[in-house]
């Protein structure tokens, strides 16, 4: 199967550089990288142009004008350009363990999407990581929060993974993977959702509603989240309303997605 690593980003080239350098150090590379850019300035474009020369695989930069937080829109634009069978999706502020891509590929299976967790870096330690461009971490590092999550246990992964047909509050769009055909079948991301935190749950819920199972992976596919202040969540009332209706009514396709229905 062919694999695309899909990275979302917005105006933080210092973090994106570390993410891309961690991708370059992967034990298994994807077939391509697609960067979904929600309107960053030229600094991000210049960084990508510089770093893409260091990769032996294509690096696509999908960009649109900055009109506020429209992550769902840029994700759909990226999905339209991606032709790979399988998509591994992360955010532009998570540094990857060297086997991150390999772990997602090994755990992939038909009619299933995967999601993992992240290990957060402390605020002061994050500053040092950015300054020193550090991309390797050990679970004993005191700069990590919830360090036990950073213990890499690939031999025990089959005992730690959990499949379900129910939604999970543990899901994070910064560490998930899915089949492109399944994303297309549910019409991609719901562009009615503005503000972070709702789009991932809605996307995953519609996958579940369409008969796709979820699979939570633990102590593999590790990633390390660089600290930053949380942005406002946007229209929480609308987000809650859409997601409640999606779950209650078993909605599979959003109307305002890849295709406008």
UniProtKB/TrEMBL annotation:
<dbReference type="InterPro" id="IPR027791">
    <property type="entry name" value="Galactosyl_T_C"/>
</dbReference>
<feature type="domain" description="Glycosyltransferase 2-like">
    <location>
        <begin position="5"/>
        <end position="134"/>
    </location>
</feature>
<dbReference type="InterPro" id="IPR001173">
    <property type="entry name" value="Glyco_trans_2-like"/>
</dbReference>
<protein>
    <submittedName>
        <fullName>Glycosyltransferase family 2 protein</fullName>
    </submittedName>
</protein>
<dbReference type="Pfam" id="PF00535">
    <property type="entry name" value="Glycos_transf_2"/>
</dbReference>
<dbReference type="InterPro" id="IPR050834">
    <property type="entry name" value="Glycosyltransf_2"/>
</dbReference>
<dbReference type="InterPro" id="IPR029044">
    <property type="entry name" value="Nucleotide-diphossugar_trans"/>
</dbReference>
<keyword id="KW-0808">Transferase</keyword>
<dbReference type="Pfam" id="PF02709">
    <property type="entry name" value="Glyco_transf_7C"/>
</dbReference>
<dbReference type="GO" id="GO:0016740">
    <property type="term" value="F:transferase activity"/>
</dbReference>
<feature type="domain" description="Galactosyltransferase C-terminal">
    <location>
        <begin position="164"/>
        <end position="229"/>
    </location>
</feature>
């Amino acid at each position: 199967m062919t694999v695309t690593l899909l990275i979302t980003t917005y105006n933080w080239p210092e973090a994106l550089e570390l993410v891309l350098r961690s991708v370059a150090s992967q034990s298994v590379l994807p077939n391509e990288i697609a960067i979904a850019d929600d309107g960053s300035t030229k600094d991000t474009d210049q960084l990508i142009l510089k770093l893409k020369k260091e990769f032996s695989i294509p690096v696509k930069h999908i960009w649109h004008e900055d009109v506020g937080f429209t992550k769902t829109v840029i994700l759909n634009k990226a999905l339209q350009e991606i032709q790979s069978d399988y998509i591994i999706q992360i955010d532009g502020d998570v540094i990857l363990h060297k086997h991150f891509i390999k772990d997602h590929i090994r755990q992939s299976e038909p009619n299933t999407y995967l999601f993992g967790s992240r290990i957060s870096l402390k605020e002061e330690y994050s500053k040092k990581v950015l300054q020193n461009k550090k991309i390797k971490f050990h679970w004993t590092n005191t700069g990590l929060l919830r360090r036990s999550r950073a213990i890499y246990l690939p031999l025990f992964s089959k005992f730690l993974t959990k499949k379900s047909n129910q939604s999970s509050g543990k899901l994070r769009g910064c560490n998930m993977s899915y089949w492109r055909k399944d994303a297309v079948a549910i019409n991609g991301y719901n562009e009615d959702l503005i503000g972070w935190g709702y789009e991932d749950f809605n996307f995953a819920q519609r996958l579940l509603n369409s008969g796709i199972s979820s699979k939570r992976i633990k102590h593999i596919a590790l990633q390390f989240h660089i600290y930053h202040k949380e942005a406002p969540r946007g229209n929480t009332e609308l987000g809650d309303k859409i997601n409640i209706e999606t779950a209650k009514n078993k909605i599979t396709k959003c109307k305002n997605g890849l295709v406008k229905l």
